[in-house]
Amino acid sequence: MADPQNEPLDLAGPLPGDRQPDIDSMIRVDQAGEYGATRIYAGQLAILGDRSPAARSIARMAEQERRHCDRFDALTVERGVRPSLLQPIWDRAGFALGAATALMGPEAAMACTAAIETEIENHYGEQLEELGDTDPELSDMIAEFQAEEAEHRETAIAEGAEDAPAYPLLSGAIRLGCRIAIAAAKRI
To answer: By CB distance 3.0 to 4.6 Å, which of 32, 33, 88, 104 could disulfide with 84?
Structure first.
């Protein structure tokens, strides 16, 4: 029987009480969020078409979101992370949110983008803080995407998001929905 007092201390592993980030949960929620964003933009473009200045901006942002989603899709496979079981909901709810805001007008579509990107930028910031230096590959990817999400928010504001009807109410409701979706996708 080994004597625990004579065993070497493992300095490479976490110290007792250290909290390690739940990387699987991070990847799951980020993949779900990026997928949801592609669906929101698809709903907006289905209504707005491709001719208006807002639609052209949305199409550019949608392409970046597609790239983000593709990278998280690949990461889920590489690391064996189970995707969110709520994916069918993100598909339909995202498209419906995008279409509904676009039906309200280009400013409301941009208000939707500004609200969501505000929450995602904050969410990515929290993840980067939690990750620290534990997973440089994931941290670099999240930091890159966070910068692009901030750019999307700034584009949306520059293109009239704050001129949307009932902007504070619309923005607040969308931001709350986004926070609820993030919490659900982490677990389910």
So the answer is: 32
